[in-house]
TrEMBL record:
This is Uncharacterized protein. InterPro entries: Hepadnavirus_pol/RT, RNaseH_sf. It comes from the Eukaryota. One of its GO terms (molecular function) is nucleic acid binding. It comes from Streblomastix strix.
């Protein structure tokens, strides 16, 4: 492998990537000057669901970079700040150290950034401030709930309600003849 020249001067970050993982999936945002320019979300496969949260967070960051590669290239980004709410993942990526199972993924992150010619800073973002990425990472679970029809009917009867339209249901979980699914 040939040596690739690296810039010694730290460039101020031009774009911020905020990332989060959840047991069901992952979801990052890309921001420039406090404005979201791209979002994406995905789900884990059966094998990945069983991994530790640290492992999933590192895999999420790697997937985020793959997902946003074209945007980063087209925006001619030279420096990126990555924000995550997982201390262990941040430390592992920053120090290039991790368990044997994770080091391959960490190397892929660094090689991808090197290939794109992007410097990174990686920082901790407290979970309470990670609202959008957190919502994206759990998006796959949104709408997977359904009320039991008998309990719904008994509750309506008990409360003396006769609803005719459900404003919050999806096509697969509506209990009334008319529903207003979200777009």
């Amino acid at each position: 492998r040939a040596n690739i020249p690296a810039q010694l001067i730290q460039i101020l970050p031009q774009i911020t990537m905020t990332t989060d993982e959840a047991p069901s999936g992952w979801g990052p945002t890309l921001e420039r000057e406090m404005e979201i320019i791209a979002t994406v979300h995905g789900t884990w496969n059966k094998r990945q669901v069983k991994l530790s949260s640290n492992n999933r967070e590192i895999k999420a960051i790697a997937q985020d970079l793959r997902s946003f590669a074209k945007v980063l290239i087209n925006s001619q980004v030279q420096s990126l700040i990555i924000r995550s709410d997982n201390c262990t993942a941040i430390f592992d990526i920053w120090k290039w150290r991790a368990s044997i199972s994770l080091i391959k993924e960490i190397k892929q992150i660094h090689y991808k950034l090197e290939k794109l010619g992007i410097q990174i800073q990686i920082t901790l973002l407290p979970g309470v401030k990670n609202e959008i990425a957190d919502a994206l990472s759990t998006l796959s679970r949104a709408g997977n709930y359904k009320l039991k029809k008998k309990i719904f009917q008994k509750t309506c009867f008990w409360m003396n309600l006769n609803p005719i339209i459900d404003l919050f249901s999806q096509n697969f979980n509506n209990l009334l003849p008319k529903s207003m699914p979200t777009v």
